[in-house]
Design brief:
Layout lengths: L5 E7 H8 L8 E7 L6 E2 L2 E2 L6 E4 L2 E4 L2 E3 L2 E3 L2 H7 L4 E4 L4 E4 L2 H4 L2 E3 L7 E2 L5 E2 L3 E3 L2 E3 L2 E6 L5 E7 L6 E7 L9 E8 L2 E9 L5 E6 L5 E7 L7 E11 L1
Antiparallel strand pairs: 1-2, 3-4, 5-6, 7-8, 9-10, 11-23, 12-17, 13-16, 14-15, 16-23, 17-22, 18-21, 18-23, 19-20, 19-22
Length: about 240
């Protein structure tokens, strides 16, 4: 056997029929062998390869790519995030919607809303941030360490939005520490958490904020570390 990582997936003919053939079902169950060898993703000269070849799909780590029968398959949502295009599924029309805010749902940059609460002046909003050579002008940027172990900023959503999409990473312009934890809270309940690690490419996340009144973004210095600089970029709210 070659060194290529391989995995067998059992896929029912019914599922294949329902998804690809408009309801035509097949009785047999078949297995396919796919390669999970990681590949690189370069967008406009910028390396956006996901960490460890995994994509965070609404809290579930899935392969960023797989190859089968000479064709490479990738999560469309991941590619949309990489090229700053919204991707959505319209169950009523069985359509994949890419881009066009009118089709996907009304969108608004989170950081265009006035902050409700801010922990200190050491949080910057909508200031130019550079990550792996790419600049962003929408987002939140701060640092945490033993002297300022926690920073936060909150917004009043009034229950008007369904989803928050954003990118997160260590701020490469800073030499302060190497790791910071980012947590998203909705009305005091943890909705999502991740780490911004220096040297790691930009990661993306999609968080359900349906019904949330107050959204809080908290940056923390993990225990036993020197903390670090962190940024959330292109945070987009979708109705």
């Amino acid at each position: 056997m070659s060194l290529t990582k391989k995995l067998k997936y059992g896929v029912t003919g019914f599922t294949l029929g329902a998804v690809f053939f408009g309801g035509i079902a097949f009785g047999a169950t078949s297995k396919i062998e796919v390669s999970l060898d990681p590949i690189k993703f370069i967008v406009d000269g910028v390396d956006k390869t996901p960490l460890n070849g995994k994509f965070n799909n609404n809290g579930t780590a899935v392969p960023a790519s797989l190859s089968y029968s000479g064709t490479t398959y990738v999560p469309l949502k991941m590619v949309g995030d990489m090229v700053s295009k919204e991707v959505a599924w319209d169950g009523k029309t069985k359509s994949v919607l890419i881009g066009d805010p009118g089709s996907v749902g009304e969108q608004k940059s989170l950081t265009d809303l006035p902050p409700l609460k801010v922990s200190s002046r050491d949080i910057s909003t909508n200031e130019r941030t550079t990550i792996k050579g790419e600049s962003y002008t929408k987002g939140i940027r701060t640092y945490v360490d033993q002297y300022f172990p926690t920073q936060f900023q909150s917004y009043n959503l009034n229950g008007h939005y369904k989803t928050l999409n954003f990118g997160y990473a260590s701020d490469n312009d800073s030499s302060l520490g190497n790791i910071a934890n980012i947590t998203i809270y909705g009305d005091g309940k943890e909705l999502w958490s991740g780490n911004a690690v220096q040297g790691v490419p930009l990661n993306t996340a999609s968080v359900s904020v349906k019904g949330v009144q107050e959204l809080e973004i908290k940056f923390e210095s993990p225990k036993g570390t020197s903390g670090g600089a962190a940024a959330i970029v292109n945070p987009v709210l979708i109705k």
